[in-house]
Design goal:
The protein is mostly helical and about 1300 residues long. Helix 32 crosses helix 35 and helix 48 runs parallel beside helix 50. The radius of gyration is 34 Å and the shape is globular.
């Protein structure tokens, strides 16, 4: 008991307790094992609690024997862990590290100490050297056990001292001696090394580990042994190195692993080989290494895996993990002849019938496996259908296989579509196993996500009739909403997008909303409370959500139905519920609150809520509720803070919400419970999304000063809350004196030189700097952190802190790059070392990207790395190129770094890599790099055309979209193409690739791909949609007209107007919240394209795009990284195009467009440079269009009845060949107008003129857009109706 307190531990230490305890631990006193462990526990406790001064001496006296005991964890009694972990560790960490880790175990505490103490590093080195010279097998085994414990915490220290070479030599030595126990233990050390860091596999390969590992594999002769199992495990990890496959194949790893697969199926060597084969195949598939698949198939892996499946499936001791691994590996081999034949045997042979469905389930997890199953003579539908009626495991496996097919290609879904009635029938059985029911529900959702064909299949099988009963049953048996409710909610949202299923989905949603009471207060103890909780849970899942599958159109449609059924008023009535049973009321209220927040998250939800009096009810309840119940109302106020318009924030501030937040903030995170983080969230969101007036209101409320009270206690709340707190403090750091003290204390913690304090200070400092980026001023003390951080980066001892420290430097560089220049050299070295070691130093590359504009070292580092892209082109998939490209992607994070890379020719080099690589990972990395540079620079987009990358991107898009495994390539290629389509100068080059079919196929997939595909189509073809109906057969090819018709159909079918209007609103919100302007700029480019079409611009304004465009013009300037005049000019240009339609002008006026444009003109006049000039012109032209000054009176006689016959006469005059030229003229596209201009003088004027003409229904040739047709320039000019010559001063200088 004395040793449970710091002072007692110190006194015991001084009295010599270590010697007594040490003798017990060493076993010299003859005590029993339990007593030895108890003594060991207090030995550790004493040195941990003794304080920094005595800690090293105490550790030296006791830690090694304790670790030797811990290296055999199966001997550790429960008493030891209990005695140490409960009081000692918590006391230690609360006192010495200034933070509480209540879940800290003894092993974690020791690992932390080892990693951050001189003694720990010395112990690791001593153990490694002792292993190297050990002459006795037992000694080597003990030392290797100890080294296994030391490798994870002391990895970097051991790596610097060549631990890979030491282990390689030890494995060779004890392998030659035939000491299996020593061999197995050394192999465990190798595995521990591989698990510690990604680059460890490369170090081991360079050290020659493959030879002794293969010796163990080959020495086993296919016989089972623990050493062979360990060698197989090591091979699986070595395969993760991107250079390893060729080495493994040359060493005969494929044959060796397959030999082990043929061992007795239940032996650990067989299982290890199966895991390694599966891992190697998965990695090879991602890297495009078909030779690995062929080598394993040729070695007989397919038959060996089949034998494992057979043996396990006939055994009573069924090993689920081994069977799943073997079957999944077999599925990966399905693209080979041997693998396909083995899978065919599973379906067709009676020998395998008893367990075939288990194997089919796992084989179907891979894309190639599903293809092989479809290619067999036996119908997969009949095969799986035969098991759906058998209760138990076989039915579950069959159902999961059906689920896999439902999430595959269209062919896969068609194959199992006849089983849908059986699936629906299963869902009606109340006794159906819960996991089978989940798989069945997910199957229905998979068909719904597949588009029209899948939804129509759900109609025919009667799926909609069972949806509510299935969801209710799930709630009755206590399942979470994510189990059945979430997939069914996704199904309903998809169903609302198709006319044939829309009414069915509406009926289901309406029935759910009707479960909410229509009026009056409600007693939470009434029988209907369960219905309300159920309905609220479904409403939450029908809402927008915040994951990657967020589907704007589907969620908006669902919320429209919910609101039309009166859900807003019904939920507000429930929020007014009164009941003295607080606990019951709180549980009930939380569900209602979540449902109401889901409605407010939806497009137009805030307006509907406020019109129904939501804020008044929330404030009323906040005044009368007690305890933590107020947190539910704070949660709803977050929606007002992040609303898409300042009006909602104004209402909230004027109602006195800030005063109501202060008590919870004053009370702190412990006293307030969940109210504190939510009150802080409301405050932070109001500051970040609001205007300068809102920031001033928060400052006047005293909230930032109150937050400093708790800033020194970050361990009292979670990391997200700490991040929010320090972001708010960062915003106000220049104006609140108390915050200056916080900044100084964090910097002082870095200067102490203690790793424990630095680990605590760095995350808080990073959040504070991120907040400062959005503040009005700048606290000078922040840059005092640069020097201690640079010192950390110069020492390997601090490697564990490097990522966080570099992240702080990156954000400081965004504030003022010139004050972070001293870090450029260090970061350049880290990047170079990382590339040489095939290790991605992402954070260091970010810093270089941020300082590139003002640092010669950063520019040189980026330029030299661009040069190294093709350094190993002969072995482009060997790993070096992948690391270089990924590092360059990080170096292009900021515009400065991207400009240097593009100037060095990175686009051309990426084109060469894409032409040479087969690796999926490298293709993704190249495409992500292209996306990054194209996002920042117009020059990069133009360079893609010169490098021939446009057809390459479309080829990758088309090829990868056919394979589920290449989904990441599809998404990356699509993002690049979308970025390119935002440049008007590239439209013709992109259209020349005939992308309509490829993009149309993606429109029927998930929203992650559908939205960018639709935006790309809109950008490419919107200008031509207005003139489509007016083009004659002589002026346009039938295939081109079909293409435009297909685009028009897709844009209408998928409601592009709603998608774009909602995305624009969300991107404005993100920009206000400090998440960057990339999404906003992309959406403005899409709006610009769509507004050239009269029908689409009408729909866009109806969907609320007009208000959003006005918002862009009126957004306050951010002190750093805010909207540029070019961004505002783009918004003004969109308004101008909308104003070409006289019927739309009233709605633009009502949205405040005139006042916003007039203010934009003034802003542009006050600005300097080209951006201000463009803003003045764009806003002025928009005002002219809004007032009708740009209207063109185009009737039948003056436009489309122009004298076309004169064109052929002009063509005849060109070279005297009337007949031939008339034929050529008919072949070429016909333009109503041709704009001839000098780019350097009149580019902007010509572009504006072009837009005016196109927006009014005329076709117009502009050389920037139509470069592919310049070789036919004379004939095109001859064929136009009107030649427009822009007479600027220098026009004749080009002749």
């Amino acid at each position: 008991m004395i040793c449970t307190r710091v002072h007692g531990a110190k006194a015991a230490l001084e009295a010599g307790v270590l010697d007594v305890l040490q003798s017990i631990v060493d076993g010299n006193s003859g005590h029993s094992g339990d007593i030895r462990w108890l003594a060991a526990s207090w030995l550790v406790a004493t040195y941990l609690l003794a304080g920094d001064a005595a800690r090293e001496a105490a550790a030296a006296a006791c830690l090694r024997p304790v670790l030797l005991l811990l290296s055999r964890p199966w001997t550790v009694p429960v008493l030891f862990m209990d005695q140490v972990s409960v009081r000692v560790i918590n006391t230690l960490l609360a006192d010495t590290e200034k933070k509480s880790r209540t879940d800290q175990s003894l092993a974690e505490s020791i690992a932390h100490f080892l990693a951050n103490s001189k003694f720990g590093r010395a112990l690791a080195l001593s153990t490694m050297r002792s292993l190297e010279v050990a002459s006795d097998a037992d000694e080597a085994q003990s030392l290797a056990h100890l080294l296994c414990q030391l490798i994870p915490p002391c990895y970097h220290t051991l790596k610097e001292n060549d631990v890979a070479e030491v282990l390689t030599r030890a494995l060779m030595e004890w392998g030659e001696a035939g000491e299996e126990l020593a061999i197995v233990t050394v192999l465990q050390c190798v595995l521990a090394l591989c698990e510690s860091e990604e680059d460890a596999s490369g170090d081991l390969l360079d050290a020659g580990i493959l030879q002794p590992v293969m010796s163990q594999l080959e020495g086993s002769g296919g016989q089972c042994s623990s050493a062979a199992a360990g060698a197989a495990d090591v091979l699986g990890y070595l395969a993760s190195d991107i250079r390893s496959s060729s080495r493994l194949l040359e060493a005969g790893a494929a044959d060796g692993l397959v030999q082990l697969l043929r061992c007795p199926p239940r032996h650990c060597a067989t299982q290890a080989a199966a895991y390694s084969v599966d891992n190697w195949l998965a990695l090879a598939e991602g890297r495009g290494e078909s030779d690995v698949l062929e080598a394993l198939a040729s070695a007989g892996a397919s038959d060996a895996l089949l034998a494992i499946l057979d043996a396990h499936s006939h055994s009573l001791a069924f090993d689920f993990v081994v069977v799943s691994t073997a079957a999944r590996a077999l599925g990966r081999l399905a693209c080979t002849l041997q693998g396909s034949a083995a899978i065919c045997k599973i379906l067709t042979s009676d020998i395998y019938k008893p367990w075939a469905v288990n194997a089919v389930h796992w084989v179907s997890q891979t894309d190639e496996g599903r293809k092989a199953l479809l290619g067999t003579d036996n119908s997969i539908e009949r095969f799986l259908g035969g098991f759906l009626g058998d209760p138990g495991l076989k039915r579950l496996m069959a159902m999961r296989a059906v689920l896999s097919f439902s999430q595959g290609s269209n062919d896969c879904r068609r194959a199992v579509m006849p089983l849908l009635p059986s699936v629906v029938q299963l869902l009606t059985e109340p006794t159906l196993e819960w996991d089978t029911r989940h798989a069945a529900v997910d199957t229905l959702a998979g068909f719904a996500a597949a588009g029209a064909a899948g939804l129509e299949a759900l109609i025919h099988c009667g799926a909609f009739a069972v949806l509510i009963p299935v969801m209710r049953l799930g709630k009755i048996v206590g399942e979470s909403d994510s189990t059945c409710v979430r997939p069914i909610a996704q199904l309903l949202k998809h169903a609302l997008t198709l006319g044939a299923t829309k009414d069915l989905a509406k009926a289901v949603i309406a029935e759910i909303v009707q479960l909410l009471p229509a009026q009056g207060s409600f007693d939470v103890l009434s029988p209907g409370a369960a219905d309300i909780r159920f309905a609220c849970g479904v409403v939450v899942e029908l809402g927008p959500g915040f994951d990657e599958s967020y589907d704007i159109k589907a969620a908006g449609a669902a919320m429209d139905v919910i609101c039309s059924e009166g859900a807003v008023q019904r939920l507000l009535c429930l929020l007014n519920t009164k009941n003295e049973w607080f606990l019951l009321r709180r549980s009930f209220l939380s569900k209602v609150s979540e449902a109401f927040m889901s409605i407010m998250d939806a497009p137009d939800g805030m307006r509907l809520a406020q019109e129904a009096g939501a804020l008044d009810i929330i404030l009323k309840q906040m005044k009368i509720c007690g305890g933590e119940e107020i947190a539910d109302y704070f949660a709803q106020l977050q929606n007002f803070s992040i609303a898409d318009h300042d009006d909602f924030r104004n209402i909230m501030v004027e109602a006195g919400v800030l005063r109501m937040l202060l008590p919870a903030l004053e009370a702190g995170p412990i006293a307030s419970g969940s109210a504190y983080p939510l009150a802080l969230s409301v405050l932070q969101l109001l500051v970040e999304y609001g205007s300068s007036a809102h920031k001033a209101a928060v400052l006047a409320s005293g909230g930032p000063a109150v937050l400093t009270k708790w800033s020194s206690h970050p361990w009292w709340y979670d990391s997200d809350t700490a991040h929010r707190l320090y972001r708010v403090l960062g915003i106000y750091s220049p104006v609140v004196p108390e915050i200056a003290t916080v900044v100084d204390s964090l910097v002082a913690m870095l200067q102490e030189g203690s790793m424990a304090t630095a680990e605590l200070a760095l995350p808080q400092l990073e959040s504070l700097v991120v907040g400062a980026f959005q503040g009005e001023g700048l606290h000078e003390g922040l840059f005092a952190a640069v020097a201690p951080i640079c010192a950390m980066l110069g020492s390997e001892e601090w490697r564990g802190c490097w990522p966080q420290a570099l992240s702080v430097l990156y954000h400081l560089a965004r504030l003022d790059p010139k004050r972070v220049l001293e870090a450029a050299g260090i970061c350049a070295k880290l990047v170079a070392d990382g590339v040489n070691e095939l290790d991605l130093e992402k954070e260091a590359a970010w810093v270089l990207s941020a300082v590139a504009e003002c640092s010669a070292k950063a520019k040189a580092s980026i330029g030299s790395l661009v040069f190294r892209v093709l350094e190993e082109l002969d072995s482009v998939d060997g790993g070096h190129t992948l690391v270089v490209v990924r590092t360059l992607g990080a170096m292009c994070e900021r515009p400065g770094g991207a400009a240097v890379a593009v100037g060095a020719g990175v686009v051309t080099k990426v084109a060469e890599v894409l032409a040479a690589t087969r690796s999926r990972d490298l293709r993704v990395a190249c495409l992500e790099l292209l996306e990054r540079v194209c996002e920042h620079l117009e020059a990069a987009r133009m360079a893609t055309r010169e490098a021939g990358l446009i057809p390459v991107a479309f080829a990758l898009l088309s090829a990868s979209s056919k394979h589920a495994a290449d989904k990441e390539v599809t998404s990356s290629a699509l993002r690049v193409i979308l970025k390119l389509s935002e440049s008007e100068a590239l439209l013709l080059a992109l259209q020349a690739a005939s992308p309509i079919c490829a993009l149309a196929a993606l429109c029927d997939s998930s929203s992650v791909e559908r939205v960018p595909a639709l935006l790309t189509l809109a950008n490419l073809y919107s200008e031509g949609l207005d003139v489509l109906d007016k083009l004659s057969a002589k002026t346009v090819q039938p295939s081109d007209k079909e293409g435009y018709l297909r685009v028009r159909e897709l844009l209408a079918q998928h409601h592009i107007d709603i998608e774009v209007a909602t995305c624009l609103m969300d991107s404005i919100r993100e920009a206000k919240g400090g998440d960057g302007l990339s999404a906003l700029r992309s959406m403005l480019a899409s709006v610009r394209s769509l507004t050239t079409n009269e029908a689409l611009r009408t729909k866009l304004l109806a969907a609320g795009a007009g208000r959003s465009l006005v918002q862009v013009l009126t957004m306050e300037d951010s002190p750093r990284g805010g909207l540029t005049p070019f961004d505002r000019a783009l918004a003004a240009d969109c308004i101008r195009r909308c104003a070409y339609s006289p019927g739309l002008r009233p709605s633009l006026e009502a949205a405040g467009a005139t006042a916003a444009l007039e203010a934009a003109v003034a802003t542009g006049q006050a600005a300097t440079g080209e951006g201000g000039f463009q803003l003045v012109q764009a806003a002025g032209n928009a005002l002219s269009a809004l007032r009708g000054n740009l209207d063109i009176q185009s009737g039948e006689e003056s436009s489309w009845a122009m004298a076309r016959q004169g064109s052929f006469a002009i063509g005849a005059d060109a070279d005297g060949s009337s007949e031939q030229d008339e034929e050529n003229l008919r072949r070429l596209p016909h333009f109503n107008a041709f704009i001839s201009h000098k780019r350097s003088d009149a580019q902007d004027f010509a572009r504006s003129l072009h837009t005016i003409l196109v927006s009014n229904g005329f076709t117009c040739f502009l050389d920037v857009d139509n470069l592919e047709e310049l070789h036919d320039l004379e004939l095109i000019v001859a064929g136009v109706d009107v030649l427009i010559f822009v007479l600027t001063d220098n026009i004749f200088g080009s002749i």
